[in-house]
């Protein structure tokens, strides 16, 4: 699919939900991977000190370039922030796919933020100055955020054009999505942000499950049916393996997962296109 970025700068998307285990990191890495296969130069920025995206993508890099196995990360996001720039951080994972890596020391971000800012607004827009230069270098930037960090959540959102809500079909993920969307509304009106929810992507807990159907119905009522992605992510064992082995494209189980994420990414691009036309 032909996809053009607006005004020559990266479209920035936060994958959001307040709850952990909602499929955020999985969606960030696999949508990023699929976009890169479509000739879209993509950077995933890991904003979670647990660094799950960093681990998965570094393993993906080694699976793609076995000769690089064992190479380490020079600089992680917290060090980049302290030094004043993230520009030399992106690590090439594969063609068109880059990673700004995180590490456990990013837990110190909130403290650093409060020490180095003097107003609400400075606090909430602190990271955007770091992301700006990266927006010239990529077509698509995907932000992977931790659960429950209000500081990182706000900073991700104020730097984003869109939020994609990751919704695992369980009650706590739905309430996490609802409170997340509520918070987005507050931030958008406080700062007159130009921010849209590009869609809510369901990740099924159980394929053809009763609870899953119930949660999906509730989500449709809560957010509007048109805001729910038509492509759902089924429960797939291979996705769990990607998290520990990296993303590969070798056997039919790999290809099945990648085919679904290819559909999701196509739908995402269509949705972005619709927003651009409006
Ligand atoms: N479609 C899926 N099928 C099977 N396991 C999944 C699927 N999506 C996510 N998972 C697994 O669920 C767990 C939580 O997902 P993750 O993406 O890490 O959520 P979050 O980033 O919101 O905490 C991980 O172990 C991940 O491998
Ligand atoms: Mg995560």
Describe this structure in words.
- This protein has a single domain (6-277), classed as P-loop containing nucleotide triphosphate hydrolases (Rossmann fold, 3-Layer(aba) Sandwich).
- The chain has helices at 24-37, 52-64, 77-83, 109-115, 120-124, 128-135, 150-158, 171-191, 210-223, 237-245, 252-277; strands spanning 11-16, 42-46, 91-94, 97-100, 140-144, 162-168, 196-203.
- It has a seven-stranded mixed beta sheet with strand order 3-4-2-5-1-6-7, sandwiched between helices.
- The protein is α/β, with parallel strands linked by helices and 278 residues long.
- The protein is built from eleven helices and seven strands.
- Helix 1 (24-37) runs parallel beside helix 2, helix 1 (24-37) packs across helix 11 and helix 2 crosses helix 10.
- The model has no long low-confidence stretch (mean pLDDT 95).
- It starts with 10 loop residues before the first strand and ends with a helix.
- The protein binds adenosine-5'-diphosphate (ADP) and magnesium ion.
- Residues 24-25, 48, 52 line the site of magnesium ion.
DSSP strand content: 5-15%
Task: Compute the number of strand runs.
Answer: 7
N/C terminus separation: 20 Å
CATH class: Alpha Beta
Return the CATH architecture.
3-Layer(aba) Sandwich
Strand order of the largest sheet: 3-4-2-5-1-6-7
Instruction: Kindly state the percentage of residues in helix.
Output: 40-55%
CATH fold topology: Rossmann fold
* Bound small-molecule species: adenosine-5'-diphosphate, magnesium ion
Shape annotation:
globular
Provide mean pLDDT, rounded.
Answer: 95
């Amino acid at each position: 699919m032909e996809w053009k970025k607006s005004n020559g700068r990266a479209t920035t998307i936060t994958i959001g939900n307040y709850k952990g285990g909602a499929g955020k990191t999985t969606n960030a890495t696999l949508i990023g991977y699929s976009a890169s296969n479509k000739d879209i130069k993509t950077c995933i920025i890991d904003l979670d000190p647990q660094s799950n995206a960093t681990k998965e993508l570094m393993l993906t890099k080694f699976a793609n370039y076995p000769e690089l196995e064992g190479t380490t990360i020079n600089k992680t996001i917290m060090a980049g922030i302290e030094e004043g720039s993230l520009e030399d951080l992106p690590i090439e994972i594969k063609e068109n796919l880059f990673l700004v890596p995180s590490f456990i020391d990013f837990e110190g971000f909130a403290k650093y933020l409060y020490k180095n800012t003097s107003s609400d607004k400075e606090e909430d827009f602190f990271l955007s100055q770091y992301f700006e230069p990266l927006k010239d270098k990529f077509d698509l930037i995907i932000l992977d955020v931790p659960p429950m960090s209000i500081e990182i959540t706000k900073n991700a959102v104020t730097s984003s054009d869109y939020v994609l809500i990751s919704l695992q079909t369980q009650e706590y993920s739905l309430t996490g999505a609802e409170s997340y969307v509520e918070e987005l509304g507050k931030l958008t009106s406080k700062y007159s942000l130009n921010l849209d929810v590009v869609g809510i992507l369901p990740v099924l807990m159980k394929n053809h499950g009763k609870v899953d159907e119930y949660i999906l119905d509730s989500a449709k009522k809560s957010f509007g049916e048109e805001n729910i992605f038509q492509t759902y992510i089924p429960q797939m064992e291979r996705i769990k393996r990607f998290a520990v082995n990296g993303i590969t494209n070798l056997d039919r189980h790999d290809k099945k997962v990648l085919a679904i994420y290819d559909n999701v990414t196509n739908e995402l691009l269509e949705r972005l296109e619709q927003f651009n036309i409006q």
